[in-house]
């Protein structure tokens, strides 16, 4: 990490780094101009009260995180705003991450809040390049919640932990009065060991890189929406919730130096991840709509719901940026793993226009894919 | 850790260990008989639904933890059911812990949910003998929660983290609909480094040890009850919420081998901690009521509320068991620290009756102090 990384804001650091490594003089001037603009345009929460959009994982969440949490807690480990923090202890490098889960309903086709809470934190560690080791589990229970449901949730967590090769080693239980929660909220935090030499980050994408997804997108989000039963749609869909640590390990073993970054595409979907990469790296991400794997049932439900699958959460899929020459090896490694069978190159990194995600549509046009605004699918995790 | 520790239940392991080290043959038989009884008497949750008592930190919480969480997640790191899990990474030993906070009201004299959430996790690490390093922060926000209140909470967390010398390095935000939470719930998890050679645990108390509290008890719990305004009591009280890592470090430096265990006396109060120690170590804890420091305002409020200060939560006090010969040194070390000025020896460890806490009352009688039953003070943290 450079000295600038330690003292400047995360976007600024990323852009400066890119400037230093990749740009010609005139390009560097543009970059510095962007830094100045970013400096002047400090994140501000305009709303006086929290809205559902603040939990979407999209634009409102990012603003809240930057204007409130980053502002309060600012430190060099938090500032990159990656899925987990990475630090050294003795001669080891560890990753540490947390997520709270408030999914509704608690039980849905393909999973429940329990395996979701385990897989989500396992995945946040895995995409940092870490081997997940230990999880904590914090429960907020509503008075009146059936003990049998709690047993189902914990049994599901135990199976998921077993499948991912992690242990739940510490925990906590709180109870709130009837009406002060929604059955059960679960928080997991996780510690993982960085035992591979990979150097990953959303600021590491470079022109010429390939953008890969590990399988069909949007299944988790659509499954949750349908499980609520508010829509008169029937579809044979299950959540994609799964632990990605086996897949990330296989990818890093196959291409130790070719992988620029990995991110699991949860709230805000693939589109939000791609925007984070484009901004942090100061590059353009160009996606071919035809190349994005989407199951017909997801596509159909999204059309009826009026939402773009690119914004719908997955809980067992990741977006990976790999150096162009490594794309073939990376894709083969992903496809050789049961959780990566449907992996596909969906686009490429270019240098212009920096900070933007462009979609080449099936009809031959091109449109900008922005960060998610609002929250069309609340409480999907 | 012995092999038995890795394969048997936590109470069993503790009792066996005690048997091996301390007991004569006849005593050992008694101990084995207790193990057999414990084996037959598996923890069972009798209720079909979660009640407020399951969040009290007392008997119902213990049963839920043993019957549901320990049953589902059973592993050697979780089984001791200490305040945090301890494991090795490379040549380092780390502690890892979590707590969720649902205190009501969110703001109270002396603190708020923010500093409580930081101090609570710092303290859980500190009483494991660890130096707290890094925290995670997970927020569950209710739609409509004032952004200004969130800023107050995060500012308070940042100040508390600064005071304790830790950093909040990773986080998460979820939003639930109006009426599905109570403003704001906070989870923190923490990682600390065991850089002192102490060997601590609730199963390590031995006859002849002294029991010490670090200051007047019950202030946090009573402050929260009064802050709710439901009682017509006025008292000049503030929460004792504080980071104990400076105090635990001072104590361990003063008496590296004399300290048997440290526990912060939160939910369930001092009485619950003493019961855990008595059971896990297979010893009797005898407390002198007159020796327990309780401020007059706390004593008065407790009398009006009809509760015993021994069951009321503190958030900046700890219970310590120290070897008899080390008691003087330990007490002096505690009293030399601003957060331990009011430290006092409140009792001693004896060998009979094993597993029980006895109180010598101010009137010269003796009564058993059991684990907290029910929850007279819900949501105090």
TrEMBL record, chains A, B:
All residue ranges annotated as the PurM-like N-terminal domain in the record: 82-193
Listed Pfam families: AIRS (PF00586), AIRS_C (PF02769)
InterPro entries (alphabetical): HypE, PurM-like_C_dom, PurM-like_C_sf, PurM-like_N, PurM-like_N_sf
Gene3D superfamilies from the UniProt entry: PurM-like C-terminal domain (3.90.650.10), PurM-like, N-terminal domain (3.30.1330.10)
PurM-like C-terminal domain boundaries: 206-353
Similarity comment: family membership: Belongs to the HypE family.
Protein name, UniProt field: Hydrogenase expression/formation protein HypE
Gene it is expressed from: hypE
